[in-house]
Design brief:
Arc Repressor Mutant, subunit A, elongated, 181 residues, 7 helices, 2 domains, 0% strand
């Protein structure tokens, strides 16, 4: 029997318990155990002290998992908060955010990268591994949907059609400046 299998059979349950002690759930501890043993299987030779190596590797992966989990949770909270109502926002800002939230994720992503991050179509294409033409199409279709949505929002709020929304030149969609110009 190879050393990795022997180590797994002898210490897997203990490593899961150790993961629980480090603050992981049972399933998270199992995931970290799997990552640890996948890494052990990739080693070309047996470490001098396989048990120490496995425990140390497990500990490092558990901490990396927790750090990654915390970062993911913070990003999710921030993303969710991004679409929450701010007491100081204008009705136009709220309508723009609601319309942006309704877009397909691919179009919303391109619009955010284009307007907020001020990337070119080429730069966005490189980031998303898409052609600049595909990026431009997603941007164009997304902006058309935003215009239509904001026009409907304005009409339903009683504003005249003369005040129809013209994006992006007369409406700055950056979060801190979502006010008509």
């Amino acid at each position: 029997m190879d050393w990795q299998r022997q180590l797994y059979e002898a210490k897997a349950a203990e490593l899961i318990l150790y993961g629980r002690a480090l603050g992981l759930s049972h399933s998270e501890a199992e995931d970290v155990l799997q990552e640890t043993f996948v890494a052990l299987l990739k080693l070309e030779r047996e470490p001098d002290n396989p048990l120490h190596y496995a425990v140390r590797g497990y500990r490092n992966r558990a901490f990396n998992y927790k750090r990654g989990f915390i970062r993911r949770m913070l990003r999710e909270v921030e993303a969710k908060r991004w679409f929450e109502r701010d007491p100081d926002e204008s009705p136009q800002e709220r309508a723009a955010m609601q319309c942006l939230e309704k877009l397909p994720p691919e179009q919303r992503e391109v619009i955010v990268l284009k307007i907020w991050h001020e990337h070119t179509y080429e730069e966005i294409g490189e980031l998303l591994q898409l052609s600049p033409n595909t990026v431009a199409g997603r941007y164009r279709y997304g902006m058309e949907k935003l215009r239509a949505c904001l026009t409907v929002s304005r009409e339903s709020s009683g504003e005249s059609r003369e005040q129809e929304c013209f994006l992006p030149s007369t409406l700055d969609l950056r979060p801190s400046t979502l006010k008509p110009t």
